[in-house]
């Protein structure tokens, strides 16, 4: 087992609906959101869809974790200088 599991559902993580979730909620097929709470006792995950006012509980099988990639595309600041050692 690796230290990082890409499909692990963690509070604060981003998600989208899985294929099974889309079957149950086709109107949310292209929506994403944030995981608010997970449970070790039940198969439910409390999620907040983007733009929604209240969270909802969905089965873990209906949720797929999204990997977040941050790209920084900028030139170095003029005040940043490289040093020679």
Structural class: mainly beta
Percent in helix: under 10%
Q: Rounded to an integer, what's the Rg over CA atoms?
A: 18 Å
- In sequence order, what are the helices and strands, one letter per element? EHEEEE
Chain-averaged pLDDT:
80
- So what's the overall shape? globular
Biggest sheet statistics: 5 strands, antiparallel
**Number of beta-strand segments:** 5
Features:
single chain, mainly beta, 7% helix, disordered N terminus
Write structural notes for this entry:
There is one protein chain. With 85 residues, this protein is mostly beta strands. It has a domain at 14-65. The chain is 7% helix and 28% strand. The protein has one helix spanning 19-24, and strands at 14-17, 32-38, 44-49, 56-59, 63-65. The protein is globular and about 55 Å long. It starts with 13 loop residues before the first strand and ends in a 20-residue tail after the last strand. The model is unreliable at 1-6 (pLDDT under 50).
Summarize the structure.
With 85 residues, the protein is mainly beta. The protein is built from one helix and five strands, in the order E-H-E-E-E-E. It has a domain at 14-65.
Topology of helices and strands:
Elements (H helix, E strand, L loop, with lengths): L13 E4 L1 H6 L7 E7 L5 E6 L6 E4 L3 E3 L20
Antiparallel strand pairs: 1-2, 1-5, 2-3, 3-4
């Amino acid at each position: 087992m690796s230290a990082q599991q890409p499909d692990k559902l963690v509070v604060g993580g981003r998600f989208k609906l899985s294929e099974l979730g889309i079957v149950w909620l086709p109107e949310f097929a292209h929506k994403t959101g944030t995981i608010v709470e997970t449970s070790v006792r039940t198969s439910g995950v409390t999620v907040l869809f983007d733009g929604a006012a209240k969270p909802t509980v969905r089965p873990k099988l209906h949720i797929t974790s999204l990997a977040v990639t941050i790209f920084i595309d900028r030139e170095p600041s003029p005040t940043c200088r490289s040093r020679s050692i």
